[in-house]
Design brief:
278 residues, alpha+beta, Lipocalin, 2 domains, nine-stranded antiparallel beta sheet, 3 helices, elongated
Length: 278
């Protein structure tokens, strides 16, 4: 959260969730952390937390991909590491036992497929994480190195994009069949969240509008099921895409913004829509 698919996003969410959970269990049983150690920040690991880090250099990768939706990110929080590998979502555990030391377990990841270059970069990134033994952090940069001081991953801080007023372009949506799928070729789905609680955009063929609310904590969201849309007709595949997207929106329970990417999820954590800022 083994089937390999051609589309980057066409993976059954239920299956992906179970596979990810299984991987996490295996990872947790042999995380590589010290005997009796819990995945927590025993050293100065607090300096890693509270920010989204975007990879700018990865060992084994000549040029890090920077296209929309392919960025490699990391978030450290109390021994839990998560982010995007550029194609798949991943989770791992980490320990900072003392000083600048760090130990990261083998990441567990979803099983989406991407371009050859993106998949190769992701594998190089995951391999680099497990080799890290030291870190150096400043106000806007993080570097993971090995025992010889070789840079494995270099990151820079990513400022989260504001939800309100941003033009969000969908990369994927929940098709109502427990799968997050990429958009039909040449089509577009957009969303704009207004400061007045309005939500509007293009659903594929038709324009739509409704209202939304964000919780005081900032990570909860509800979207009104009373969605108004225009009544134009279009190709059958786009009309099915539009229907599924509009049906997914009212199921939203949480939101998360990671740099320039927005995720909407339901109460079980299943992804409903994935956007990138325009």
């Amino acid at each position: 959260m083994v089937v390999r698919v051609c589309s980057r996003f066409a993976v059954p969410l239920a299956a992906a969730g179970l596979l990810a959970l299984a991987l996490l269990v295996v990872s947790g049983c042999s995380s590589g952390l010290g005997p009796g150690a819990s995945p927590s920040s025993a050293g100065n690991g607090k300096a890693l937390e509270g920010r989204v880090w975007k990879a700018t250099a990865i060992s084994g990768v000549t040029t890090v991909l920077t296209g929309k939706g392919t960025e490699v990110t990391a978030e450290f929080a109390a021994g839990e590491l998560s982010g995007s590998g550029g194609v798949n979502r991943y989770t791992a555990t980490y320990e900072t036992p003392a000083g600048d030391q760090i130990k990261i377990s083998q990441p567990a990841a979803t099983l989406m497929a991407g371009s050859k270059a993106a998949m190769a970069q992701e594998q190089a990134y995951f391999a680099a994480l497990t080799k890290a033994t030291k870190y150096a952090v400043t106000a806007d940069s993080l570097t993971l190195t090995d025992d010889q001081g070789t840079t494995l991953v270099a990151y820079t801080v990513v400022q989260p994009t504001a939800l309100e007023g941003t033009e969000w372009d969908a990369l994927a949506y929940n098709n109502g069949k427990d799968a997050l799928v990429s958009l039909a070729a040449g089509s577009s789905i957009t969303a704009k969240f207004g400061a007045d609680g309005s939500l509007s955009g293009k659903a594929s063929v038709n324009s739509y509008s409704t209202t939304y609310q964000v919780s005081q904590s900032g990570d909860g969201m509800t979207i009104d099921a009373k969605i108004v849309s225009t009544k134009m007709a279009g190709p059958a595949d786009l009309m099915r895409q539009e229907t599924a997207y509009l049906a997914a929106l009212p199921r939203t329970a949480t939101l998360s913004i990671e740099g320039d990417e927005l995720w909407l999820r339901d109460t079980t954590g299943a992804a409903l829509a994935h956007y990138v800022a325009r």
